[in-house]
Amino acid sequence: MKKETAQEQFTNYLKQEKHRITPERFEVLDYALEYNGHFGADDLYVLMKTKKSNISRATVYNTLELLVKCKLLSKRNFGDGLTRYESNFERKNHDHLICINCGEIIEFTSPEVQEVVDKICDELGFEKVGYSFNIFGKCKKGNSCKNLK
Ligand SMILES: [Zn+2]
Ligand SMILES: [Zn+2]
Predict the structure, then answer these.
(1) Assigned fold of 1-90
(2) Per-position pLDDT tens, the chain of length 149
(3) Contact indicator for 85, 42 with CB cutoff of 8 Å
(4) What are the angstrom distances between the C-alpha of 37 and each of 32, 40, 85, 102?
(5) Ligand nearest the Cα atom of residue 86
(6) Which residues in 5-31 are b (16+ Cβ under 10 Å) and which e?
(7) How far is the CA of 142 from the centre of ligand 2 (A)?
(8) Relative to the alpha carbon of 99, which ligand is closest?
(9) Which of 49, 105, 106, 116 is found 20 to 30 A from 15 (Cα to Cα)?
């Protein structure tokens, strides 16, 4: 049920934008929606390769961009210069706390933040496509919060 709807959404987008509908693109869609949490394009590529997929790196990269455009994925930047993606499908809009020490990413949902974003856009006559709200700091894991770099 869940997947059918995402696949329909993607099919409609590809048709509308006159992109080719290929099984590889839907393979990337499946893996991307099943991925738990935030991932880089290379993480997904490596995962698919370990599952014996014949996918090419280029297909993974450009399909992820198509999935962002049709709003099935969100694109995130957590301040380390890497682009990450996460499933948007049937998920609540949320924001992130990022530990600058260990890289832990904590998600939270705040209706107040959404309201402020909408209010600002309203006031300035701005049509919102997306927004990014990250809080950087140190997590509360204490000793198990280890510097990754
Ligand atoms: Zn997230
Ligand atoms: Zn930490």
Answers:
(1) Arc Repressor Mutant, subunit A (1.10.10)
(2) 445 689 999 999 999 999 999 999 999 999 999 998 999 999 999 999 999 999 999 999 999 999 999 999 999 989 888 999 999 988 888 999 999 999 899 999 999 999 999 999 999 999 987 888 999 999 999 888 987 65
(3) no
(4) 10, 10, 8, 16
(5) 1
(6) ebeebbeebbeeeebeeeebbbbbbeb
(7) 7
(8) 2
(9) 49
Distance 74 CA to ligand 1 centre (A): 8
Torsion of CA 141, 111, 4, 1, to 10 degrees: 80
Question: Distance from the CA of 79 to the center of ligand 1, in angstroms?
Answer: 14
Asked if 67 contacts 28 with a C-beta cutoff of 8 angstroms, the reply is: yes
CA–centroid distance, 118 to ligand 1, in Å, is 20
92-149: which CATH architecture? 2-Layer Sandwich (3.30)
**CA pseudo-torsion sign 62, 66, 69, 73:** negative
- What is the whole-number distance in angstroms between the Cα of residue 101 and the centre of ligand 2? 5
Token pair for residue 79?
């301040």
Tell me the chain's radius of gyration from C-alpha atoms: 17
